[in-house]
Design brief:
7-stranded mixed β-sheet; 4-stranded antiparallel β-sheet; 11 strands; 0% helix
Length: 118
């Protein structure tokens, strides 16, 4: 069973950039589709981005299109979320998730807090 650990969340300025990492253990990341979700206080969990078996197969939530990029390095067993042009509305806990099938995620990390100040 794969375990996921997110890192990289911190306080950032609006307009700045952050890169989140999702390190996998107990399994081979290349066997899974990967997604990033986020949840802000009082709001429902939102899909930010997902990537399938092939690194060319990606999908983004409307609110982050053109600003965020999901990627994976299977050799390092790590996935990433590059976040540019950050906005205060991006403030949330960000979760990494993995699943055998894209769109169905069985394994979740503990989350990492991203706070964007204006």
């Amino acid at each position: 069973q794969v375990q996921l650990v997110e890192s990289g969340g911190k306080l950032a300025q609006a307009g700045g950039s952050l890169q989140l990492s999702c390190a996998a253990s107990g399994g081979t990341l290349s066997s899974y589709a990967i997604a990033w979700f986020r949840q802000a206080p009082g709001k429902e969990r939102e899909l930010v981005a997902q990537i399938g078996w092939s690194t060319t197969s990606t999908e983004y939530g409307n609110s982050v299109k053109g600003r965020f990029t999901i990627s994976r390095d299977n050799a390092k067993n790590t996935a990433y979320l590059q976040m540019n042009s950050l906005q205060p509305e991006d403030t949330a806990v960000y979760y990494c998730a993995a699943g055998e099938t894209r769109g169905i995620y069985n394994y979740w990390g503990q989350g990492t807090q991203v706070t964007v100040s204006s």
